[in-house]
Amino acid sequence: MVFMPRREKGDMRSMVFEDIFDRYSSDRGVSRGRRSPESVIISKKDYDALKAKVERYEALEEAHKKVKTRNDQLLKELDDMKDDARGFKKLQEEKEQFLKQLLQVRADFENHKKREVREGARYKQYVLEGFLLKLVGHYDDLLRALNLMKMLEGMEGIRKGFEIVVRNFEKVITEEGVVPMESEGHKFDPYKHEAMLVEECRDDIPENTIVEVLDKGYYLCDKVLRPAKVKISKPSRRSGESNHSQESSLQEQTLQKKTRLISNN
């Protein structure tokens, strides 16, 4: 008979294991003595099975600890990821806000560039108009000098050379878009002409007709660069008096007709 006392977790009783000799002695009536009421008698096979279960339990408990530890780590990582997600959402909102600001700044910059181009073109046109206005003044002086040379004798050689200078000067201003204004014989237009003198003319010439150009006008690309200074016509006094007498006679005839109609009635 073999006695193997052992204390397990949560079990303070002694374990007594029996073998074949113990069962044989029990069958022969051999006294085995009084056992403690706290003793548990199991077989070797049951002990091995119980031991395997205990080892498996311990292994499962150890695995459970590892799983729990891993689960705690994963929960912590999940919380960190949630914090990161909230931080990412905030970064995303900031990015969208910065993107809107960038697009607004870009649009403002494009508008500024277009405005600068327009202002530059307008300023260039303004400077060009001022420069060409001075050139056409010098061109008129050259034409006057050329006309004076044509009236003088013995200056054919100088006059021919001066004509070349005038033609080249005219070519320069023409290439820039300057075109002389044809005004004589046209009706006076205050947007294109500047009336310097008024002259009584024949009855066949309409009123406000340009009869003489005192200073030539010029266009710059269909825009008035310099208005022409002109002399315009007005009705003569005779025609005015005749027209007035005709109107008076017509009024008198009309009055006489009305008087006769009233007397007949």
Give structural attributes.
single chain; 265 residues; alpha/beta; Nucleotide Exchange Factor Grpe, Chain A, domain 2; 3-stranded antiparallel beta sheet; 3-stranded mixed beta sheet; 4 helices; 8 strands; disordered N terminus
Describe this structure in words.
With 265 residues, this protein is of the alpha/beta class. The protein is built from 4 helices and 8 strands; from the N terminus they run E-H-E-H-H-E-E-E-E-E-E-H. Among the domains are: 70 residues; 78 residues, Head domain of nucleotide exchange factor GrpE (Nucleotide Exchange Factor Grpe, Chain A, domain 2, Roll). The strands form 3 sheets. It has a 3-stranded antiparallel sheet. Strands 4-8-5 form a 3-stranded mixed sheet, with no helix packed on it. A two-stranded parallel sheet has the order 1-2. The chain is rod-shaped. It starts with 14 loop residues before the first strand and ends with a helix. The N terminus is likely disordered.
